[in-house]
């Protein structure tokens, strides 16, 4: 049946940035699209909300790390209201004594590092050149939407042959390794090693010594290179969601919130539409799901429609959450010891050493939390003063390695965790506790409830994937496609998985 008198060529499940990006791209390809979002608002983890009257924050995802310029242009996001309050933010590894480290992005930063740590600065030059060579090899795979992996690998080998001999061998040698082992081999400076390790594993449940974390690190570097580094959108992450929703509307796509899809309809072995929780059947020959692979294939489609071998290949369990979020209203800018007011607006990391990051991961696996958690901090109101009253600020703290099922239960522990975050930051900014007007901790179960993300974070089931052919956006059921964080090219508020699935769908339709 058509819905509201309209017929649709495609239904997109999930109103997060990937679902919205897929809907907008399919609309641009002249498909009539209906997007169904279970919650009462769009965005998934990319939302802006009031944390106190007059104080607004990106309550879950807080930094645009890799929204590709190509997607911004293709979907005309600036015309639809997206503006970046700050672009290409530096990352600063905070030091308790004020000897902060700006992660080098240019010669000036390397020279600053050389001033105190000449051996590490020399090692950085080699490390940086090595990582850049590998990113140059793999980044094109992230935009390659061909379903067959062989031609993509062939192109990768050609690219490698153009570069210095041995680059491909070095890449293949590195990919299965742990970032921790590489950092131990290359660097001495604990602050540098801690920051790089946190960068590599942020958002995952793997510690820095887990095999394959090098792949995660390179994947992140490659994704980041597609955008303009870390940016803070004016109006918070919800502004990205709003711009994507406007792009869908501009293509005459229809968006429904409060519309949970409860099952996929199949006829003659092919997708025929969806049924929503209120029992409405909506017919369309194409369904694109931004949910995880397991949720789509088992919960919505049902094992009866897939072969046993394919069921076995699905991720074993829903991903378990590993991030929590603290949002704070402040009555002024905290005085971080030795940090200039300009760098206060940077991406700030508290990860004093590789051991601290490793310990956080180990404790998380034991359902516990370090007394001084590692964290990623932003103060978005520095670049975007409209988020707080004049002279006041909002601070956003992402806490990795937070177990979903914490020992003793979150209700009993959340206040102590919030206080440990405030205490930890106060070691770097002594006036910090006095600046806090209000604060709130979103635990992984809270994030799950608010964002609709199973487990409240990204877990072991949703690994980075480098190529569409390896990440199976198409499913064994004709007409059913995946565009969520488990499909090419993986997680992050990038919209890439959505656009990439849409491109693959359009290519397949053209081929037919
Ligand atoms: C706390 C937190 C902080 C993060 N911080 C950052 C960050 O700073 N930068 C960054 O780049 N990334 C960040 N991420 C990661 C980023 O937000 C994720 O990569 C992204 O959320 C992954 O998922 P997605 O957008 O594809 O879908 P999801 O966010 O998982 O959204 C799925 C959507 O589908 C809806 N839905 C679920 N079931 C149904 C159904 N049956 N029918 C209809 N709709 C349904 C949900 O309500 C939800 O809107 C963060 C994630 C979390 C949880």
Describe this structure in words.
With 512 residues, the chain is an alpha/beta fold. Among the domains are: 10-44 and 65-83 and 235-317 and 461-511, FAD/NAD(P)-binding domain, CATH 3.50.50.60; 124-224, no CATH class. The chain is built from 19 helices and 19 strands. The protein has helices at 17-28, 69-74, 107-116, 118-142, 149-162, 167-174, 179-186, 190-201, 213-226, 237-250, 293-301, 308-313, 341-344, 354-365, 410-426, 432-435, 444-451, 468-471, 496-511; strands at 10-13, 33-36, 48-52, 55-58, 84-86, 91-93, 101-102, 232-233, 254-256, 261-267, 270-276, 281-283, 287-289, 323-330, 347-350, 375-378, 393-400, 436-442, 480-482. The strands form 5 sheets. Strands 7-6-15-16-17-14-18 form a 7-stranded mixed sheet, sandwiched between helices. It has a 5-stranded parallel sheet with strand order 9-2-1-13-19, covered by helices on one side. The protein is globular. Flavin-adenine dinucleotide binds next to helix 1, strand 14 and helix 17.
User: What's the oligomerization state?
Assistant: single chain
> How many E strands?
19
Uncertain spans: none
Strand order of the largest sheet: 7-6-15-16-17-14-18
CATH H-level superfamily of one domain = FAD/NAD(P)-binding domain
